User: Fold this.
Amino acid sequence: MTGLEYLHAIIAGKRPGGALPTLLGIRLVEAQHGAVRFEGVPDARFTNPAGSIHGGWTASLLDSAAALAAYSTLPAGKTSTTVDLHMHCLRPIMPDAGTLVGEGSVINAGRTLILAEARVLDEAGRLLAHATSTCMVLDVKERSR
Assistant:
């Protein structure tokens, strides 16, 4: 299966989407070659001591969006993993934020490295966070090492 075919199978409920996104309340809702869209609803379970949503929740949404945008470009027999993630939180996210959107897109897809970006937007379309990420392309057999 290509990366994009696998993502379509996740959206259709035919393949698992991963335990962490499920625990964090985020789900993949759209995928095309080089771009994905997630939706997530942060709640009080994910607050930091200051009362806003912990940056780790935001980082997970950004990483998922960037990494799966990269994954969507891969042929059968290849997988990828995040090498780095640089995120910038631009506005606080509060537990009553409602449904947030995580959009990921590929900037450049090379043979061994893929550069992607991701954004978190609120229901009004305001940019809450942004990230860039580098993903390493691997053969599927390398994944078990």
